[in-house]
Amino acid sequence: MVPRCPSCRHRLFQVGDDGVKLRTNIIIFNGDGATVKCPACKADVPLDLQLGDGLRKDLNQPVRKLIVRKVLDDQDSAK
Known about the structure:
This protein is mainly beta. The protein has one helix at residues 53-59, and strands at residues 13-16, 19-22, 27-30, 33-37, 44-47.
């Protein structure tokens, strides 16, 4: 049985020869597992999903930002 959205009964998974595909663009990971947005009605649908230790550790790391400072050219650098 392929799970469906409990609100609108839209199919969230597609079963094919190469495996099972999740038919949504948004997956929200948290400490308890994952929640997906239904593409039809935009309802939050919890998934019974367990994250591996490596992915769970990476999700808890702070995001590194790249800062690029803009330097304006002066008249002397144009020569």
